[in-house]
Amino acid sequence: MDYSYLALIVVTLAIGLGAQAYVNGKLSKYSTVPNSLGITGAQAAQRMLDYYGISGVPIKPGAHGEDFFDPRSNSITLSPEAFGATSITSLATACHEVGHACQYAFGYTPMKIRGAIVPVANVASNAWIFILLIGIFLNMAGLVWAAILMYAVVVLFQIATLPVEFDASRRAMAYMQSISLPQPEQKGAFDVLRACALTYLAAALTSILQLLWLLGNNRD
Question: Is the separation of the CB atoms in 172 and 92 below 8 Å?
């Protein structure tokens, strides 16, 4: 029994489950609180795009849990609960995704850096564990270190994601302040966005811990 790995599993599970519970609590709390403007997430997204003078960005309804900006098609997809609802959660979610559209439109450098890492990170995230297992099974240190290097790229991608997500939320809050959203609703929106940001922090932290463990247990 490798107790260091057992400790790693316990710590990362605690971080992940704790973050998810906090996020679910905030999303649930504000999903039943309507915004005073009476606008849906889709309407808020369009208004924010217009406010920043951004055109040609379609806002599409997606499946449950699908809230994202796609730079390949320069489009925003919102889940049913964000697209058509008038809650604080839907408002914050929609404006956050428009924040990403603003980054793309204005050439936000961290987004460009993250985008450049995406292709390599996608390959590495799918392949590293298999290469690691093959390296261990065949007792080939070179393959093990190649797998660790690939996992390091995944970790780098997660770290590069943090400023992109934080900035999108900052842009969302700036817009909601500009339209004079009541202070209690701004606080609710901030709570939602902060909770969502916590999931990215938790993912990055657990990945860093995993990488440190791999490095520490594969020294010559």
Answer: yes
> What percent of the chain stands above pLDDT 90?
82
pLDDT of res. 7: 85
Distance CA 197, CA 211 (A): 21
Q: What is the mean pLDDT of the chain?
A: 93
Which residues are known to be catalytic? 97
Could you list the beta-strand ranges (E) of 2-42. none
- pLDDT of res. 161: 96
Q: How far is CA 57 from the centre of its chain?
A: 20
Quick check: 195 and 187 in contact, CB under 8 A? no
The model's pLDDT over 130-185, given as tens digits with 9 standing for 90+, comes to 999 999 899 888 999 999 999 999 999 999 999 999 999 999 999 999 988 999 99
Sorted by sequence, the CB contacts under 8 Å of residue 8 that are 6+ apart come out as 209, 210, 213
Q: Is residue 220 helix, strand or coil?
A: coil
- At 220, is the pLDDT very low, low, confident or very high (cuts 50, 70, 90)? low
Q: Which of 172, 188, 196 is nearest to 32 (CA)?
A: 188
* 179: phi then psi, degrees, rounded to nearest 5: -95, 10
Helix (H) or strand (E) holding 77: strand 75-78
- Integer Cα distance of 88 and 33 in angstroms: 6
What one-character DSSP code corresponds to residue 2?
Answer: -
Q: Are 41 and 91 in contact (CB under 8 A)?
A: yes
Q: What is the number of other CB atoms lying within 10 angstroms of the CB of residue 135?
A: 19
